[in-house]
């Protein structure tokens, strides 16, 4: 592990189990870690500012030589809770939707579901920093991450995109994966995989370290029932289906 690898990760609650081991001094001392929201990490990987990023999978077609380097992902096999369409009216009455600027994957997923699953046409609005305050009447909005968890009880209609994808395709969905723009040596990846897996094996420790004011949702349920972290064969099929949809 002579090279100091540059790692980019999303700074949401759903990544805390993966980051617990990565942020242990024994591993952190060998890398440079950057944390931001998904679109920023994606741009850093595209521009070469980082070597490995936990990035929205929608950017995979934009990379010249992408490698999904880890068995750990951010996915869901049903309701994910933290990626949803929020509205004051039923989906067939929605006229406009604000698109969350923090994740390209969620936006593309929404457009697939609107066209193929819900079969409704809407106007898309560019979201600004405080767009959530503008969700009212027939104007809905996609919210992801921690802000989605905070808003689950604030709107009468919440359409979980992970659940809708499962109902539409019968497959799980991969929202983000550890992606590199070059092959990564096996010695480093062995240590990286062990670091990723540490928090998943110590979820009580992960949850205990999260301040009470950030625990706006049952985090044990979130980490064990909503978010799926293992990139298995079924997850690979779900990702392949999504990438096929966005290419067409």
What does this protein structure show overall?
- This protein is α/β, with parallel strands linked by helices and 248 residues long.
- The chain folds into two domains: 5-73 and 174-231, 3-Layer(aba) Sandwich (D-Maltodextrin-Binding Protein, domain 2), CATH 3.40.190.10; 83-169, D-Maltodextrin-Binding Protein, domain 2 (3-Layer(aba) Sandwich), CATH 3.40.190.10.
- Helices cover 39% and strands 25% of the residues.
- It has ten helices and eleven strands.
- The strands form two sheets. The protein has a six-stranded mixed sheet with strand order 2-1-3-10-4-11.
- Helix 1 (16-22) crosses helix 7 (186-200) and helix 4 packs across helix 6.
- The longest helix is centred in the middle third of the chain and has 15 residues, at 104-118.
- It starts with a strand and ends with a helix.
Topology record:
Elements: E1 5-10, H1 16-22, H2 25-28, E2 31-36, H3 38-47, E3 52-56, E4 67-76, E5 83-87, E6 96-99, H4 104-118, E7 123-126, E8 139-144, H5 145-151, E9 157-160, H6 161-169, E10 173-180, H7 186-200, H8 203-208, H9 219-226, E11 228-230, H10 233-247
Parallel strand pairs: 1-2, 1-3, 6-7, 6-8
Antiparallel strand pairs: 3-10, 4-10, 4-11, 5-8, 5-9
Note the main attributes of this structure.
248 residues, alpha/beta, D-Maltodextrin-Binding Protein, domain 2, 2 domains, 6-stranded mixed β-sheet, 5-stranded mixed β-sheet, 11 strands, 39% helix
């Amino acid at each position: 592990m002579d090279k100091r690898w540059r790692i980019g990760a999303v700074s949401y609650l759903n990544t805390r189990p993966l980051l617990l081991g990565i942020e242990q001094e024994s591993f952190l001392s060998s890398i440079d870690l950057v944390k931001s929201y998904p679109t920023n990490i994606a741009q850093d990987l595209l521009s070469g500012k980082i070597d490995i990023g936990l990035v929205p999978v929608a950017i995979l077609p934009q990379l010249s030589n992408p490698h999904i380097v880890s068995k750990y992902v951010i996915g869901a096999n049903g309701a994910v809770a933290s990626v949803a369409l929020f509205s004051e009216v039923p989906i067939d009455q929605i006229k406009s939707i604000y698109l969350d600027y923090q994740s390209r994957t969620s936006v593309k997923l929404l457009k697939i579901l609107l066209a193929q699953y819900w079969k409704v046409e809407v106007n898309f609005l560019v979201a600004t920093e405080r767009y959530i305050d503008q969700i009212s009447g027939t104007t809905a909005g996609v919210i992801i991450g921690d802000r989605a968890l905070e808003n689950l009880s604030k709107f009468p209609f919440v359409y979980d995109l992970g659940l809708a994808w499962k109902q539409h395709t019968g497959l799980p969905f991969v929202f983000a994966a550890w992606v590199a723009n070059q092959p990564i040596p096996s010695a480093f990846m062995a240590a990286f995989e062990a670091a990723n897996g540490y928090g998943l094996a110590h979820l009580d420790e992960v949850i205990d370290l999260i301040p009470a004011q950030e625990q706006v949702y049952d985090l044990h349920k979130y980490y064990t029932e909503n978010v799926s972290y293992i990139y298995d064969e079924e997850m690979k099929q779900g990702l392949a289906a999504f990438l096929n949809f966005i290419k067409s």
